[in-house]
Amino acid sequence: MNKLVKIPVVAAGAGAGLFAVSIVVYYFNLDMRLIEALHPYLSKWYDHIERRPFNPPKEVF
Q: Is the pLDDT of residue 26 over 80?
């Protein structure tokens, strides 16, 4: 196959494949299921972060 034909065909196939994967992830809500599975581990890490107290900004008026 000619290179001028092969490159766009491969790029179009890769784009169609990525689009199909994104539709499957959206349809089955896989991103939120993954975050739900990782939430206990992320919470342990996040809760150990030292935080400084919040001081609201002073009014300028």
A: yes
